[in-house]
User: Which sequence fits this backbone?
C-alpha cells in the first residue's frame, strides 16, 4: 500500500477531536479515495490512531470492533444508539469542513507521488 496514502488517511484520523466521529466515506471524500480504501488503511495501520472515531456510514462497526470501541466512546461521551449497534453519528459527526481544512494544512508538506 502506498505509504503516502496511508499517512494521509492516518493524519485525517488523528485530527478528529475527542468526542467526535467520521465515517469512512467522510474521510475518503477529504483524502480523495473511496471508503473501502480508507477501511483498508484502517484495518492494516489503524491501531496506532484513534480508530474508534472512524465508523461506517451508520455509526457502527463489525461486532468485534464495536465491543472494543464501546469503552472509548463512553470515555469520550459519544452516545451509543438505543439498539446498541453503534454510535449516534448524526450527533457526534465532526464538522467536515473544519476537518478538511485542518487535513489540508496537516498534509501540505507531504511530497506528491510521481505518476
Assistant:
Amino acid at each position: 500500500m502506498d505509504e503516502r496514502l496511508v499517512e494521509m488517511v492516518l493524519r485525517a484520523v488523528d485530527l478528529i477531536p475527542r468526542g467526535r466521529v467520521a465515517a469512512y466515506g467522510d474521510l475518503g471524500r477529504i483524502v480523495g479515495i473511496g471508503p473501502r480504501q480508507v477501511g483498508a488503511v484502517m484495518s492494516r495501520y489503524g491501531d496506532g490512531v484513534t480508530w474508534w472515531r472512524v465508523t461506517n456510514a451508520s455509526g457502527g462497526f463489525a461486532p468485534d470492533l464495536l465491543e472494543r470501541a464501546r469503552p472509548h466512546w463512553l470515555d469520550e461521551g459519544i452516545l451509543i444508539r438505543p439498539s446498541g449497534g453503534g454510535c449516534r453519528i448524526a450527533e457526534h459527526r465532526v464538522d467536515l469542513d473544519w476537518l478538511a481544512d485542518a487535513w489540508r494544512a496537516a498534509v501540505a508538506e507531504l511530497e506528491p507521488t510521481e505518476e
